[in-house]
Amino acid sequence: MQSVDQLYPLLDTPRKVVITMHQKPDPDAMGSALGLYHFLTQLGHAVQVISPTNWAAFLDWMPGSRTVLDYEKFKDKSEESLRQAEWIFCLDFNTLSRTKRMAPSLQQSTAVKILIDHHREPEVTAFAYGVSDISKSSTCEMVYDFIKGSGRMDLLNLSMMQCLYAGVMGDTGSFRFSSASATVHEMVAEFKHRGLEHTIVHEQVYDNFLENRFRFIGHVLLHRMEINYELNTALIWVTKQDLLKYDIKTGDTEGLVNYPLGIQGIKLAALVIDRDEKRKWSFRSKGGFDCNTFARQHFNGGGHFNAAGGESDDSLDQNLEQFKSIIKEYKSELSSY
Ligand code: 5GP
Ligand code: MN
Predict the structure, then answer these.
(1) Do 194 and 292 lie in a common domain?
(2) Atom number, ligand 1, closest to the C-alpha of residue 308
(3) Which pLDDT tens digit goes with each residue over 124-162?
(4) pLDDT tens digit sequence for 229-270
(5) Ligand 1: which residue has its CA nearest to atom 17?
(6) Regarding beta strands 46-51 and 16-21, do their DSSP bridges make them parallel or antiparallel, or are they unpaired?
(7) Which residues sit with their C-beta closer than 6 Å to ligand 1?
(8) CA distances (Å), 329 to each of 48, 110, 305, 323, 333, in order?
């Protein structure tokens, strides 16, 4: 994989470009894709953003979101764009399998693939160019670096800043995690000097839910959360009936896993959702518990040190049993607080 900087001399020649991101895109995935979309479009490229799956309604305000194709919904059109693409930017994921049903087409595509990502252990052989840096707060920060590095900061407009700010905000827990470095704050300062109104972005993403989501959270925290104080671990599970009863849509469960980390002493929070054909796991930790390795070893997943996810084909009950039995092996790590 050559450095992404090597692309700068090539940016002036218009190309057919596809930008994609991980399935069920979060603010960082969608924000980085659309931030880059607005940049490349201004440079004269013909750009199509494709999301491997649908996305949360709280991302619909992002400038450009209406042009994004949902691969599962518009497969033929998406496949056509992939076939024609000369460049494919892959944002905010480390392995092609994170694009779910789109993965085989990406694998087979002969287009030049470019990675911009901050997850651990990227599949670098799949990409011709790229940058992978786990010290970065977000892929949005990396897209900003890419734009700055190209010397075309004159193209940084309000739409791009809104998209990029949303992603950094999302991935840093609203500038709370240690990844919110001085450089991140400098980037935000630059956005503010250029006229970004950041409160609008916070409100669009965090104050835009329907009542049912809060009733659902109340139900889950009351009836679906178990705390193991010996292991400083919280486990939350969500059944298919819960999702149906509260009419839970993509995005409504975002942030649910973080609640138990607010309980004194809790070092690890795990959430499993009985979603569609898979059981989907989220893991969040404070301090020295490595969620990435845990998710990788036991739940066919990965991510970052303090935030990772995974999935399983087994039933919800089997998953819960499996987690409760495995977690005991981590007693020394989790109980030394
Ligand atoms: P979340 O729990 O919010 O879905 O994901 C947390 C982090 O773990 C994100 O950075 C996400 O990209 C990563 N992640 C979530 N699910 C998976 C998975 O199934 N496989 C891998 N490799 N990473 C995941
Ligand atoms: Mn990210």
Answers:
(1) no
(2) 8
(3) 999 999 999 999 999 999 999 999 999 999 999 999 999
(4) 999 999 999 999 999 999 999 899 999 999 999 999 999 999
(5) 309
(6) parallel
(7) 22, 98, 119, 282, 301-304, 307-311
(8) 46, 45, 18, 10, 9
- Is the pTM higher than 0.70? yes
Distance CA(260)–CA(234), nearest Å, equals 6
Please report, for the domain that includes residue 149, its CATH number: 3.90.1640.10
> What domain range is 41 assigned to?
2-206
**Strand-strand pairing, 16-21 and 2-3:** unpaired
How many whole angstroms separate alpha carbon 192 and alpha carbon 189?
5
Q: Which ligand is nearest to the CA of 179?
A: 2
Q: Whose CA is nearest to atom 10 of ligand 1?
A: 303
Question: Ligand nearest 93 Cα, by number?
Answer: 1
The DSSP element (H or E) to which 274 belongs, if any, is strand 268-275
Copy the structure tokens of residue 16. Answer: 């057919």
- Same-domain status, 42 and 162: yes
Q: How many whole angstroms from 237 Cα to the centroid of ligand 2?
A: 24
Q: Out of 21, 22, 92, give the residue to mutate to test ligand 1, the one with the largest number of ligand atoms within 8 Å of its CB.
A: 22
